[in-house]
Design goal:
Helix content of chain A: 55-70%
Protein name (chains A, B): DNA-binding GntR family transcriptional regulator
CATH superfamily of the largest domain in chain A: GntR ligand-binding domain-like
Shape of chain A: globular
Number of domains of chain A: 2
Structural class of chain A: mainly alpha
Keywords (chains A, B): DNA-binding, Transcription, Transcription regulation
Oligomer: homodimer
Largest interface: A-B, 46 and 46 residues
InterPro entries (chains A, B): GntR_C, TF_FadR/GntR_C, Tscrpt_reg_HTH_GntR, WH-like_DNA-bd_sf, WH_DNA-bd_sf
Number of helices of chain A: 9
Radius of gyration of chain A: 19 Å
GO molecular function (chains A, B): DNA binding
Strand content of chain A: under 5%
Pfam families (chains A, B): FCD (PF07729), GntR (PF00392)
Distance between the termini of chain A: 24 Å
Order of helices and strands of chain A: HEHHEEHHHHHH
DNA sequence: TTATGCCAACATGCATGCAAGTTGGCATAC
DNA sequence: GTATGCCAACTTGCATGCATGTTGGCATAA
């Protein structure tokens, strides 16, 4: 998903379609497997074995693994196989700071647009927030999680900064398992909806400082609820 | 330079030393060549040729190029060679937003420490700022640039977030050429020193919001001076 | 029982060969 | 002179072989 295109470059130049390569396939398959815990963290795999399982030779697997390492999802131990990365509480702290930084700046940028732009953004974000609210009333946790993800994705993407989008994407992949795990444990779904509305309001008002502050509040509260939860679970890593 | 270690993971786990591989060598050499413009942007190289020049086979070069692509420094055109990425004004805009986001959050974190930590950070930052001031008085532009780089590097590194450090490092690599070019054109060196002092003061006061604001001011002013400069040079890319 | 050391199995690093896609230029037709 | 089409040269994608580093277990000795 969206990982087909190359890295840099602010769009614009003609998108040369990349024919699907085995490397891309391996990258996607491995990432998927890691995200849905088919490869549990701490698992010690070998490129040979992965290659066999995916029906290709070691080369494309090796290259895919390099990319996954760059993404922080695995670690290549020279001549000792690849290790699926676990997430320590300290990683979660780091990840939240990155999110706060990037989403905060995105919110500032969004609140700094002309009226028409702000209204369009606010409408899009409000739609996702409404979906969250409804999912909450239905008690539909997965739907709530998806709508929440869409809200935050839109928040960053609408800022129109490809690098920020990419950073958030990478960070989201890293923290995917944590989100899945904690979705079931969270009590503050209602608070999230309210905070989202506050963010939207600040954007609509065209008040960058307030938008930034509301994003900070939202993410830091969520983090401060999440970390003790992980601790109480005795999870030193996940 | 600090690119030897793997990606993720908040330090802590024992550092298994990686024996230097040809891939690492190729990565470092290529990056260096790109940063100092031995490979000019837009240059169309072939892996074969690079391999020959570095005295190794295509394989390690290919893998190094993958990493450079992940860093946004080159683009691999399938079966048509590798393209050294240029920087468009829009890229510069994106880059500054990322810097503002990350450095801003770093400054907040620094200002949120207990007294001792803040004072240590402030002292370190003040030392670099003093070096800038002296370099300015001597008219020593390169020294000014190095001290400025050290200031901003310390600002982020002292926040103790490996992911933020890595993001800034990547972004710095991407914008290296722009910095080198514009160092000669800048007039506002004195203003930078003053703004650095304001950032330090806010951190020392323990006022996160103010520290964030001062970083914003500093970077956005610099950006707004830089962009017209690039435009007036008629540089559509560099 | 415990400690030591050797070794076979195994993992990746790297080189190289072959397959397939892309390009630029030359020959040809008009 | 201009347009068309074909082909040779070139480039990467991928498979595979060999070299080398790592490991866990078994045999051996204390």
């Amino acid at each position: 998903m969206a990982r087909t295109r190359a890295a840099g470059h602010a769009a614009k130049d003609q998108d040369i379609e990349k024919s699907p390569s085995l490397v891309d396939g391996a990258y996607a398959a491995l990432k998927q497997a890691i995200l849905d815990s088919s490869f549990a963290p701490g698992y010690h795999a070998s490129e040979q074995e992965i290659a066999l399982r995916l029906g290709m030779s070691r080369t494309p697997v090796h290259e895919a693994v390099i990319r996954l390492q760059e993404d922080g999802l695995v670690r290549v131990l020279s001549r000792r196989g690849v290790l699926i990365c676990a997430l320590a509480p300290d990683d979660v702290r780091e990840i939240y700071d990155v999110i706060v930084a990037i989403e905060g700046r995105a919110a500032e940028l969004l609140a700094d647009q002309p009226d028409a732009g702000r209204e369009a953004v606010a409408a899009a974000l409000a739609a996702e927030t409404e979906a969250m609210s409804q999912a909450w009333r239905r008690g539909d946790l997965p739907a709530w999680g998806l709508a929440d993800a869409r809200f935050h994705k839109a928040l960053v993407e609408r800022a129109g900064n490809g690098r920020m989008t990419r950073i958030i994407q990478t960070i989201n992949d890293q923290s995917h398992r944590a989100r899945m795990l904690t979705l079931k444990l969270r009590r503050e779904l209602e608070a999230s909806v309210e905070e989202h509305r506050a963010i939207i309001a600040a954007i609509l008002e065209g008040d960058p400082a307030k938008a930034l502050a509301r994003v900070h509040d939202h993410r830091l509260r969520a983090r401060d609820e999440l970390l003790p939860l992980l601790d109480s679970f005795g999870l030193k890593h996940l």
